[in-house]
Amino acid sequence: MSVVPPLTQALVLAGKDLRLERRTGEAFLVVAPFGAVALFMVPLAVGADTPLLATLGPALFWVVVLLFGVLVTVRGSATDGPAQRAVLSLVGVTPRVRLAGRAFGNTVLLLGFQAVIAPVALVLYAPEPAGWVWLLPMVPLVAVGLGTLGALADLVSEGLAGRAVLGPLLVAPITVPLLLGATGVLDAARYGRPAWPWLVLVVTVDLAAALLAAWCARHLEDQS
Amino acid sequence: MVARLDAVRVDRHRITILRDLSLAIAVGEVVGVLGANGSGKSTLLEVLATLIRPTSGTVELFGRRLDAAGRRAVRPRIGLLGHTAALYDRLTLAENLRLVARLIGQPAERADAVLAEVGLERAADRLAVACSQGMRRRADLARVLLTRPGLVLLDEVHAGLDPDAVPLVDDVVRTVAGRDGAACVLVSHEPDRLAGLCDRLVRVRSGRVEVEEPT
Amino acid sequence: MSTTDPAAPVRATLRAVFGRGLPAFAALAVAVALTAALASPPDRLQGELVRLMYVHVPAAWTAFLAYGVTLVAGLVWLWRRAAVWDRLAAASAEAGVFFTGLAIAMGAVWGRPTWGVWWTWDARLVTTALLFFVYLGYLALRRAVDDPVTRARRSAVFGVVAFAMVPLVHFSVLWWRTLHQPPSLLRPAAPAIGGGMLTALLLSVLAFTALFVLIVRTRMRLTAANAALDVAELTGAEPVAGDAVTAPRREATR
After folding, report:
1. Residue C194: its pLDDT value, please?
2. Of A52, A122, B98, C138, which one's alpha carbon is 20 to 30 angstroms from that of B185?
3. Which residues form the Cytochrome c assembly protein domain (chain C) (predicted)?
4. Is residue C244 part of a domain?
């Protein structure tokens, strides 16, 4: 048996996750419409105040991306049952590789999720265009950070009852820096302040999440 | 020696499942494990598969102690067929096998070839969820042919297999046992299934290997 | 008198659970702190309300101490794998959530008359509230896992990951506040704290810390007793799992 590099294994696993998503449509046909409904309901509750909605728009987009994006990361279609976990272990997939594969898959799906949600937010809220260029780096950076933290929470809550609710509770509070960074760049651009510090913040969060994931993966190997 | 278990005890969820269990499996040996429902047969297989770490006692596989490095080294040499087939429901049989092939650095054609060997080439593009229990079992057997393990662990492998497929199990078992340095452990509650196939039968009762019956 | 006292076993149990010296010390510390808090002078601006500080500040301090203990205990568990560290982490997290809740509630009660609001988006407040949620998640995770080893491992990992993110959370919230309009009107009076008040505050912190140690130790002892009970039921010649399954005895099968 030839030795497969861990990165290749992780990419193979991510490909498997994406294929499963294509078959089940959980992220795009369930979570994304749910997020769109949330964006739709806020104006109904707040009132059809166009300038107010334009101000709220970017913030609500990011809140929906983070809260509903967590649901993408704990989607049931990506769950490995005990039998699958056993096979993966026995073909030499380490927990770190499994976590990396899940994080890669999550990141791609979250990029797609943002691409679906963004036009909805744009149409419903007509936000000011100021600072939109900052979204170009921010969108993938948030996808990476949330994808990694989501993969971690997914492994921590793997096989537990109530995982679909527990996972989001574990992730949401620690994604606050991502939320502040993502909304901060737009605020900074609007008030003519430098936006790059927020970018640095989000990059730091991504790095911290990746390092933590790499450190803790081996502790999550399910052995009594 | 392929595997050696010494005074193994396993507690799970605050219940003792195996107690003071010792078992040695020699190269080329086919061992049948008998026992009533819930006697700990499957747990024994999971211990042999390095998936459960014993509460106490020692396990040696292929002459290695199972510390972190040892586990990593021996795992690719173990093939486990559990109660339920380890297939992703929403992948086709071919995709399931190709996934394993790519993870161990084998070409996709090998995956297709082993599917043909177990008689599933015409069902290769069917989703696993749409396959019968017996088909899933055959696909799992195909995985064992693909990964070519040195220690094959089969849990109730005959369950759901039609008469046509039973010789397939015999064939897989003989192929493995004939390979250099390999051995095979079969678990069943039906002695008749194992009698012709195994060199030796052991019975798990009260958490230990109680009776050894040469065949 | 040699008649057996019916309350004796109860007292013995209470002593075994709570201990003797620590409860006495904690009670003394609380009494002293309470006296000092009541005897300290009222604040020039806030009047009697300032006495809430003697609960709010020590509660917040204890909460942070508790989370620190949980983090360290989790790390030591991952290193040593001894159940006692998991018990310490769990007990400390429970106490931490309680004291965080207390600090936030007292803060709200204090904030309403002094600042006119129950809640303000001060960085410290936001971080504290987020810690509260993080450790509610931690406790929810613990409840969801049956197997003690799996529970210890997963909660230790989550505890470390979550705690490691806290500085980033705090920093980002701090930054977020300074870039928005500063809450100058909502700031409490300058912390030029008088001597009497400082003494009372330090005594309160000591009392809360003693209470925290008592709570954690008691909780650990109870958990350990529970585990010991399970182990006592396990060792010896009791049946293994498989012995629970016997041959069916329906007439038809005979």
Report:
1. 67
2. B98
3. 27-180
4. no
pTM: predicted TM-score of the whole model, two decimal places: 0.88
- CATH classification (class only), B3-86+151-213: alpha beta
Cα distances (angstroms) measured from residue B174 to each of B28, B180, B198: 9, 12, 10
CA distance linking residue B180 with residue B102, whole number of Å: 25
CB pairs under 8 A between B and C: 43
Residue C12 placed within a domain? no
| Tally of structural domains, chain C | 1
Q: Which residue of A has its CA nearest to B79?
A: A90
Q: Is C242 in contact with B205 (Cβ distance < 8 A)?
A: yes
Name the residue ranges covered by the structural domains of chain B. Answer: 3-86+151-213
The mean pLDDT value for B189-193 works out to 80
User: Is residue C247 a part of any domain in this protein?
Assistant: no
Give the CATH number for residue C207: 1.20.120
- Mean predicted confidence (pLDDT) in A136-145: 96
Domain assignments of chain A as residue spans, ordered by start: 6-223
Selecting from A180, A205, A220 the residue whose C-beta is nearest the C-beta of C154 gives: A220
Alpha helices in chain B (DSSP H): 41-48, 68-74, 93-103, 108-117, 133-147, 166-178, 191-195
Residues of C with CB below 8 A from B17's CB? 240-242
Contact between C137 and C165 under an 8 Å Cβ cutoff? The reply is: no
Quote the domain boundaries for residue C213.
Answer: 17-237
Phi-psi region of C238 (alpha: psi -120 to 50; beta: other; left: phi over 0): beta
> What gap in Å lies between CA C217 and CA A192, rounded to an integer?
54
- Partner-chain contact A188 C168, CB within 8 Å: no
CB contact under 8 A, B36 and C242: yes
Residue B134 DSSP SS3: helix
